[in-house]
UniProtKB/TrEMBL annotation:
One of its GO terms (cellular component) is HslUV protease complex. It comes from the Eukaryota. GO terms for biological process: proteolysis involved in protein catabolic process. Keywords: ATP-binding, Hydrolase, Nucleotide-binding, Protease. GO terms for molecular function: ATP binding; ATP hydrolysis activity; peptidase activity. Residues 200-296 form the Clp ATPase C-terminal domain. This is ATP-dependent protease ATPase subunit HslU-like. Pfam families: AAA_2 (PF07724), ClpB_D2-small (PF10431). SUPFAM superfamilies: P-loop containing nucleoside triphosphate hydrolases. InterPro entries: ATP-dep_Clp_protease_ClpX, ATPase_AAA_core, Clp_ATPase_C, P-loop_NTPase. The keyword Hydrolase applies. It comes from Daphnia sinensis.
Amino acid sequence: MVRDLVEQSVHLVREIKNETVKAKAAEAVEEIILDILIPPVKGMGFTSANSPILEETTGVASDSELNERTRDRFREKLRNGDLDDRKIEINVKASPTVGVGMIGNGMMDDASMAGHDFRDDAQKVKKRKLTISDARKVLLEEEMSKLIDFDEVKEEAIKLAENNGIIFIDEIDKIASKSSKDLIPELQGRFPIRVELQSLTQEDFSRILREPKNALTKQYQALFEAEEVYLDFTDEAIEEIARLAFLINQEVENIGARRLHTVMSHLLNDFLFEVPDVIQANSKIRVTKEMVEERLLSLVKNRDLSQYIL
């Protein structure tokens, strides 16, 4: 799928480049066809015997000026389509292809990326007899190829595929049989999923502090118990912590439940430093609403400090 995406990208960039050089290439094609129909004069003494077309149109010997006038008349006929059905023989080079090679695990092949995949083919030439209408199309492709930098085409195509390419995977349920966890993270991250979230309320913060198995209050209790110090939170203290976390999110920056980490850290870090030197084993710390207000309320009111501390 990735190879197909890159190839489509190459084709798209090639088409864009073709449009930029098409007019110049068309002029070159016109001159090539005129050279076949009315060969340019090579020095003096050129006669109509050397050119069936000149003999057909003038019947007399030609010089450079007459040759140029004849080319102008045929140029007008070419542009009007009067000669589209006439057959001419042209030399056709193998069409260059912009291959973006792939090797194991979907990696790009450096040799192919370097452009060696088409330069050798471009040297192969064969003669073809076509109507002028068909020859013009073949020669136009060839002349446009001469004016395009294929290394630049490949670079732009790869960037286009990387930045704007989309791969549609049909029947994704057959790949992920049970849930999105069956998919590798790199693929999960590519899904354009948009989710609108609502801000956490004070009640949400309170539940986060109480209900989860690994709630922050329980984590801090386990941390203190490692030093045989017992930490206890009153219901009013938990409600006050939830209220302050909600308030800071509203006034400073809404970072969701992560706000509880900064609030709890500022509330209890001093106690952690005092264990076990100041606060001895078998001690009990009771966190009350008054303690929460004493340690946090002044910071909450000072918005400049709370922006950096909380």
